[in-house]
Amino acid sequence: MIRQSKSARRKRLLAVVQRYISFFLLMAFVITCCMILFLSLMEESGLYFTKENIGPAAVLTFGNVVLLSVLCTVIDGIRRKYMVERPVKRIINAAEKIMNGEFSTRIEQFPGIYNADGFNIIIKYINKMAEELSGTETLRTDFIANVSHELKTPLAVIQNYGTMLQAPNLPEEKRLEYAKAITEASRRLADLITNILKLNKLENQQIYPEQQTYNLGEQLCECLLNFESTWEKKEIEINTDIEEEVFVESDAELLTLVWNNLFSNAMKFTETGGSVSLSLKSEDDFAVVQVSDTGCGVSPEVGRHIFEKFYQGDTSHAMQGNGLGLALVKRVVDIVGGDISVSSEVGEGSTFTVKIRRKDNGEMQADS
């Protein structure tokens, strides 16, 4: 530590000497040029200076050069200390805190006199970086906490029912009930892991859309028919209004993920005897898909967060889910260049609207 301190002082002294020499040479050059010009003008006017007269003046001029050089060096040192070293030190201290994980660190901007050096611009971007890092750290922490919670729930179910299955003389009816509960918890756990992997690939752009032109109405009908057993079991009324010959150029596999999630949610949150509606219409250059249900609906507060990872409006977790379905839907729609929104009222149901750029007949004929 002592060696570093001596080395730092030596470097600082060397820098001061270098600045002094620079000012001395500058002053000597300027004053010498002025003196030569002055003497030349005096000679042209017929006035001459003897060596005895010029000698003391030269010594005095040299002294002035030395004095002015010292003065400029001191002034420059003070300027550098308050207008360079002070901002740099503040920025370095804040950067070290950010490097150590203190993402709440913010640097106070300097008065307007420092703007010319660009320090406030640097400070602005460092503060912005710290803010983004803070948000990322919060998301990471929340993600880990939510994943831990969601994994713990089905694992606890499996563990508890597995323990109860080991009881001697367990009736066949109870054995089947416990085995079914373990199977459901295992399936939920598998779905959670699958969705986490899909969402991770989507967010890291490891899945790239494969563009193909196809009939969107046919795809929607095929996806909806996959839930036939569910709506028959809950006696849900299905209403469809699908415009024919609506084509899109997009990734069919990714959009299948969107429709399956929306239909699954609609069936899950619709009470027995309710209704689910599907519509497809062309509006300008877009294909507009709406999936509506007569379920419990959500409040405006829930609606603002409904596409966030692990966010569940049903805080009681009465409805099984992992809060990743709509986050996947949102990410897929963003990737294919579409838009998704939700309108809902508590007790009235929800309507999800997806807009995707469609391909008109003129474009299809041109491609063919």
If you had to describe this structure to a student in words, what would you say it looks like?
- By secondary structure, this protein is α+β, with helices and mostly antiparallel strands.
- The protein is 62% helix and 13% strand.
- Strands 1, 2, 3, 4, 5, 6 and 7 form a seven-stranded mixed beta sheet that branches.
- It contains ten helices and seven strands.
- Strand 4 (275-283) and strand 5 form a beta hairpin.
- The chain has three domains: 2-100; 142-203, Helix Hairpins, CATH 1.10.287.130; 216-367, Heat Shock Protein 90 (2-Layer Sandwich).
- The protein is elongated and about 125 Å long.
- The protein has helices at residues 2-44, 51-99, 119-165, 172-203, 216-225, 228-233, 252-269, 300-305, 325-335, 361-367, and strands at residues 212-215, 237-242, 247-250, 275-283, 286-293, 339-345, 349-359.
- Helix 3 packs antiparallel against helix 4, helix 4 packs parallel to helix 9 (325-335) and helix 7 (252-269) runs antiparallel to helix 9.
Cα distance, first to last residue? 76 Å
The mean pLDDT is 78
Shape: elongated
What's the tally of helices? 10
Topology of this structure?
Elements: H1 2-44, H2 51-99, H3 119-165, H4 172-203, E1 212-215, H5 216-225, H6 228-233, E2 237-242, E3 247-250, H7 252-269, E4 275-283, E5 286-293, H8 300-305, H9 325-335, E6 339-345, E7 349-359, H10 361-367
Parallel strand pairs: 2-4
Antiparallel strand pairs: 1-3, 3-7, 4-5, 5-7, 6-7
